[in-house]
Amino acid sequence: MTEIYDLIIIGSGPAGMAAAIYAQRAMLKTMVLEKDVPGGQVINTYEVDNYPGIPDITGFELSTKMREHAEKLGIEIKSEEVVDLLLDQTVKVVKTTGSEYQSKAIIMATGARWKKLGVKGEKELTGRGVSYCATCDGAFFRNMEVAVVGGGDVAVEDAIFLARMCKKVYLIHRRDELRAVKILQDSLLKHDEDKIKILWNTELKEVIGKDQVEKISIINNKTKEESILDIDGLFIGIGTDPNSQLIQDKVKCDEKGYVLTDDSCQTSVKGVYAAGDIRQKTLRQIITAAADGATSVYAAERYILENF
Ligand code: NAP
């Protein structure tokens, strides 16, 4: 008879690895399934400076340490892409490209991805001056000049946050009005142009630099005038997309596809949990992802005890 796991964790970022550590400690028979590059979005963060107790570490190193910790406790990790989930039954089924597994509970920890602009140089210089997270990387640009792309809450908040530490911030927005809520707009507009300069109707054409961002090429989409801006860092805040394609039609999600859960990370389907950036939440950081990993295992353990 096919073996039944207590728990299958899908995703190996901080939420998945924290869940793996807690599951091993709870002695649940657990497997982690990961796709492509292990470690989640954190591996793209050059330096992580806000994870308590570990002040100087790269995203890659922190991710590796989390994995080593889980492996030391004996976790089984398989690199297999999950292609389907059967959740509408007591014992859930996880189908991958090559196999089929059964589990009493499932934790979805597949994260989210920052939307990319798709311009020349963006990919090559990501982690070398191009960042998608001002809270994570802003401190590395103290007293330097940076640009933020976007006009929503995230971009405006990022511009205000960066203005506290950077010499100058350019906010590049493709339209002539911001999408961000009024309170944020008011706070943004309190800064004088020497601190935060808004470039309206402007789009990014290219990120230029050899090993680090040195300049960007921009275009005014009304006048078609092109110019070059010398900057040290570029923050792209044009939204995120959750990696929830696998379960969007199986559990309740918000209009953007983020999975809705209760405080214990329980989704609308019993025995199915969502942890980390895939979940609708207010703060998407390594520490909150790791916390979700722990919380979801705590809930899954109780669910298994009560139902099997
Ligand atoms: P968002 O609200 O979807 O805004 C994305 C912004 O990026 C928009 O201004 C959009 O321009 C621009 N954009 C999108 N694609 C672009 C492209 N290809 N090129 C140039 N610009 C592009 O996303 P978000 O700001 O990341 O916020 C995500 C969610 O988190 C929102 O629901 C937001 O309310 C919430 N949030 C709330 C708070 C808060 O309440 N304090 C803080 C942070 C986030 P257009 O305006 O022209 O479409």
TrEMBL record:
Q: Which InterPro entries does the record associate with it?
A: FAD/NAD-bd_sf, FAD/NAD-binding_dom, Ferredoxin-NADP_redctase_2, Pyr_nucl-diS_OxRdtase_2_AS, Thioredox_Rdtase
Name the EC number(s): 1.8.1.9
* Ranges for domain FAD/NAD(P)-binding: 5-293
Listed under catalytic activity are: [thioredoxin]-dithiol + NADP(+) = [thioredoxin]-disulfide + NADPH + H(+)
CC terms in the record's Gene Ontology section: cytoplasm
- Pfam families from the entry? Pyr_redox_2 (PF07992)
GO terms, biological process: removal of superoxide radicals
Q: Which family does it belong to?
A: Belongs to the class-II pyridine nucleotide-disulfide oxidoreductase family.
Please identify the protein, giving its name as recorded.
Answer: Thioredoxin reductase
Q: How does the cofactor bind to this protein, according to its record?
A: Binds 1 FAD per subunit.
Coiled coil residues, start to end: none
Specify the species.
Vallitalea guaymasensis
Q: Which GO terms describe its molecular function?
A: thioredoxin-disulfide reductase (NADPH) activity
- The record's top EC class is oxidoreductase
Q: Which cofactor does it need?
A: FAD
Quaternary state and interactors: Homodimer.
Q: Which UniProt keywords apply?
A: Disulfide bond, FAD, Flavoprotein, NADP, Oxidoreductase, Redox-active center
**The organism sits in which domain of life?**
Bacteria
